[in-house]
Amino acid sequence: MIECATLQSVELFAGAGGLALGVAKAGFNHVAVVDSDSASCETLRLNKRERIKYVRDWSIVDSDIRTIGFSGFRDVDLVSGGPPCQPFSQAGNRVGRNDPRDMFPQFIRAIRAIHPRAFIIENVNGLAGPSFWRYFTYLIHQLRFPEVQRAHREKWTEHRARLEELYTANKYEGLQYRVIEQSLNAADFGIGQRRNRVFIVGIRSDLGLGYSFPISTHSRATLWHDQWVSGEYWDRHHISKRSRPETPASIRFHLSKLQERPLLKPWNTVRDVINGLPNMGIGRKSHKVSNHFFNPGARSYDGHEGSSLDAPAKTIKAGRNGVPGGENMVRLDNGMVRYFSVRECARLQGFPDNWAFEGSWCSCMRQIGNAVPVTLGEVVARPLAEALRSVLDSGKKSL
After folding, report:
1. Rounded distance between C-alpha atoms, residue 375 and residue 350, angstroms
2. Residue 25: is its pLDDT beyond 70?
3. What is the band of 399 on the pLDDT scale with cuts at 50, 70, 90?
4. Are 162 and 148 in contact (CB under 8 A)?
5. How far apart are CA 350 and CA 121, in angstroms?
6. Distance (Å, rounded) from C-alpha 304 to C-alpha 327?
7. If you write DSSP's letter for every residue of 72-129 in order, what string do you get?
8. pLDDT, tens digit, for every residue of 308-355?
9. Which band of pLDDT confidence, cut at 50, 70 and 90, is reported for residue 256?
10. Which of 77, 98, 115, 268 could form a disulfide bond with 272, CB atoms 3.0-4.6 angstroms apart?
C-alpha cells in the first residue's frame, strides 16, 4: 500500500499562528515557523509546551527574517505567510514600499532561495487598492519571476517594465510561478467577522497544476432569511418573540426576495460564535476558559459603536499604536458596550479554545488583530494541498 506524500512547509511572519494553524489543518507540516515579534513567539511556545495539536511539532524560529538564510529549506512544498500590513493598512502610515516594515522583498527572497512548489500570501485589501496598485502589480511580477532581480541603480519602475516584457513574451525558462490573487471576506466562509483580505497564491510553473480560490459557503442573505423571514435564528438562541428586535428599515426592502431560503449557510454572528462562554462582569473571572476576562473602560463614540451581537463582528484590529480605544467592542442586548475578551476575539478569528495567548490584554488583542482567521487560511490552503499531494503521490506510484 502506498502512503500519501507528506507535504512540508515554511511559515513566515507567523505572528500568533492563525495562518500557520489553518495551513497545518489543510495538510501541511511546518518544518519552520518564523517571526521576530517576541510576544507572538511566546504565544507559540506556550502552545507548544502545552502539546497543542500541530504547534507541538513546529520548530519555532524567533528571528528577524532579514538575518535568515533559507538554503536548508530548499524545495519544500509551500511557503506561506502574511508580511506586515502596516505599510498598506488604513490604520498605518500608508507609505507602502517606503515603509521599512515592507517585508515583501524578504518574502520574495525566500521564494528565490527555497524554490517551493507553491506559496500563499495574505495581506490587507489596501495593498491591492488604487493607492498601491502600481506597486501591487510590481510585486505580482516579482513573484512570477523571483530570480529576475532588480539591477544596481535600476529604478523599481524600470524593473517592473522589464518583468512585464518577460511576462508578455512568455519565453522565460528560469524559475517561474503561475500567480493569481483574490480578495476574500472571512464571513463568507463561516468566520463570525467581516474581514476582507487579499490572498496571493503561486504555483511553480513546471508542475502544471491548476488552482482556484474557494467559493463562498456562507451568505448574508441566508442570515437575513433566518432572522427576519423564518425566525429560525432567534429560535435557535431561545429569544422570545417579544424580545426580538424590529426588522431594520434598511433590510425590509430585501425581504420580498428572501421568501425562499438561499442554499448557502447563514453568516455566523457574534452571538453564534461566543455562545457558551461564561458571562463576564466587573470582578468576575472565568478560571476554566483561558484569556476570558472582563476589561473595563469601553465606550462608544461616533463611528465606534461596537459590533452587533446579531451580525458578524466588525474587523478585529490591532491598531497602529495598540488596540483601538473605541473598537473591538460588542454592543449588548441592553444597549451597553464592553470590550470583547481575548477569548471571544480568538473565537472570532477561528482559533480553538485550547489555543492560549501570552501577554497583557493589549498584547493579546494586538496578536489576534494581526492574525489571519484560521478557517480562512485552511480553506485557501486545502485545495492547494490536494493538488500538490496528487502530483507527489503519482510520482511515488511511478517509482
Report:
1. 6
2. yes
3. very low
4. yes
5. 18
6. 6
7. GGTT-SEEEE----TTTSTTS---GGGSTT--HHHHHHHHHHH--SEEEEEEEGGGGS
8. 999 999 999 885 444 555 568 999 998 899 999 999 999 999 999 999
9. confident
10. 268
What nine digits make up the cell of 33? 515557523
Amino acid at 134: R
CATH class for the region spanning 260-369: alpha beta
Q: Is the pLDDT of residue 286 over 70?
A: no
Domain ranges of the chain: 7-216+372-397, 220-259, 260-369
Straight-line distance from the first to the last Cα atom of the chain, in angstroms, rounded to the nearest whole number: 13
Rounded to 10 degrees, the C-alpha dihedral 136/137/141/146 comes to -10
Cα gap 294→252, rounded to integer Å: 36
In 3D space, the residue among 263, 375, 285, 291 whose CA is nearest the CA of residue 24 turns out to be 375
State the alpha helices, DSSP H only, in 237-373: 249-255, 270-274, 342-348, 361-369
Q: What is the pTM of this model?
A: 0.93
Write the DSSP assignment of 162-226 as a string of letters: HHHHHHHHT---SS-EEEEEEEEEGGGGT-SB--EEEEEEEEEGGG-----PPPP-EEHHHHHII
Catalytic residues: 85
Rounded to an integer, what distance in angstroms lies between the CA atom of residue 40 and that of residue 363?
A: 9
Element (H, E) at 7: strand 7-12
| Domain 7-216+372-397 coded CATH 1.25.40.530 | no
The secondary element (H helix, E strand) that includes residue 61 is strand 60-62
Answer whether 7-216+372-397 and 260-369 agree in fold: no
Q: Which of 45-49, 85-89, 197-201, 240-244 has the lowest mean pLDDT?
A: 85-89
Q: State the cell numbers at 398.
A: 511511478
| Residues above pLDDT 70, as percent of the chain | 92
**Cell (9 digits) for 24:** 497545518
For the cut 50, the answer to whether the pLDDT of residue 194 exceeds it is yes
CA atoms within 13 A on the CB side of 353: 11
